[in-house]
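Ticket #4471: structure output looks truncated?

Reporter: J.K.
Steps to reproduce: submitted the chain below (352 residues) through the standard prediction queue, then opened the result file.
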Amino acid sequence: MDLKKVLERASIRSSGAVIIGSNIMVDGHEPNYPIRIITHIHRDHIKDINKSVREASLIIGTPPTLEILRELGYIIPEHKSLPLGYEKFIKLDDGEFKLVPSKHVIGSAQVFFRDYILGIDIGYTSDFKDPGKGTPIMNVDVLIIESTYGKPEWSRPMKDVTEDLFIDLVKQLLAQGPVYIYGYHGKLQEAMHILRCGGVIAPFLAPYRVYRVSKITEKYGYEIGELYLETSEMANEILRTKWYVLFEHLSKIRQRVMSSSLKAHHIILTGWEFETACRRLNERIWRIALSDHGDFEDLMSYVSQSSPQLVIVDRARGGSAADVFANEITKNLRIRAIPMPISAPSIESFMR
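Returned output as attached by the reporter:
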């Protein structure tokens, strides 16, 4: 494999854009690429979307991803918007690509590209968890992979029981009063689904934006159940009962905790908890290690099962963890791994 030629066809730029082939930029913007793919709704993957809307010919994502982005206020003209289901190939002059399912948040996708120029397959995982179970493994020659939890110490030994602990905790706390749950869009809706599947029957409340995103996820198969807009008349009646679960964006936690006159319990959903699945911070606040990213073991497992000739590790979003993860891949799996973006002299060192 000619590394120089490969990196002309598969790379990660300083803008955060993942470049695949001659036409595709993913999860970031670069000039002169006509197709922008958005793998999911999180902020670090929709960076510079307005630039892409202005300059690109097509904005591609799964139907729920594009629908939620519109609900969040992003304007993508209909003539530039292409909702694309999983496993449907689109042919270009230099290759063909498809979106592959991913377990991360509603609508998440991986990108698979068959390169006609080099005769190789390139895959970009974006964010994922549960490789081989919830997230299919792409068997490719060049694998571009996330590295959020790319350090060996960032493993969660109790990840298989976290959901059950979360369900049990919410049930216990509901017996004492209302429960407020904090997370990001996507994770909040996953939490609703987990609780409903786990037998939590208390009504759910949410502010407008969380409510609207939740209704879209329900449309695409999530079990949400009894959910009310926090400002509705029905919600006012439910608030008086003090038996409900309210879901709020993580950015609002300080405001909610400080302003709450109720003896409510507050649960923070976070991936940055490794020693235990559930941690009590004080009398009223808990942390649950419910992550929508795979941990270090999951990342290594994906690479091992994919068996690529080359791994490009996402440094734009993973930071220094990408450097560590690339070294671990090379050391333990004997596969060449390069963190990107990096400077030209550093790339040259990998070509020796």
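Triage note (M.O.): checked the attachment and the full token line is present. The chain has twelve helices and 20 strands.
Status: closed, working as intended.
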